[in-house]
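Course exercise 7: structure representation. Students receive a sequence record and must write out the corresponding structure in token form. The form below is the worked example handed out in class, using Glucose and ribitol dehydrogenase (237 residues). Read each field label carefully; the graders check that inputs and outputs are placed in the correct fields and that the protein name is recorded exactly as given.

STUDENT ID: A-19
EXERCISE PROTEIN: Glucose and ribitol dehydrogenase
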Amino acid sequence: MNNKSNHYPTSAPAQHQQHQPGSQAAMHPEPEIIKSTHQGSNKLKNKVALISGGDSGIGRSIAVLFAREGADIAIIYLEEDEDAKKTKQLVEQEGQQCLLLKHDITDPKVAKKCAEETIKAFEKINILINNAAVQFQQKKIVNISTEQLEKTFQTNIFSIFYLTKAVLPHLKEGDNIINTTSITSYHGHDELIDYASTKGAITTFTRSLSNNLMKQKKRNSCKWCGPRSNLDTFDSK
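STUDENT ANSWER:
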């Protein structure tokens, strides 16, 4: 007897894009954003979330899921207009507002502007998601140029520092900062040396900032992404 399941793929096909940041609109098939069966329960009603890299991938999933839970959304993106407009449409389909911020947050002044524009639109920020990142695969460390190294660190860790610094004065007791990190921060990756290094920096940044914010009763945590997805949480009590 033939097993019909053998006719269907059991994993997503590998897809690679040379240009960074990548475009979700160019992916075929596109990744699933949110389970259609998920029922929102207003866990984030009347909250406002600012999400860097919120136009696609993990960032888009967060935006749509948070919207389904009742939050209004502001997303920061670099140049992927088509992806950003799609995310805005999906958020609005959930009955929530979505502000698009097309900015390069590797500049601290621009990061501050993103916080200010979000406050102007929604009068508050309750959740900051530091999610923007790039990665460039190289088989040998000698192939990692100074330009690539600087871009990876500026995008993946410097922007988190700048945006967190800009948003923090607007957060109230009980509000939250969530940083997207990676399984590579603990296990490394032989072809993503600079990228894995930034993710390790994010994990340590999260631990340190959480301790720093403890007296303010503001929370800071990071989400591991990778084959063994885990939540590495350092919540201030």
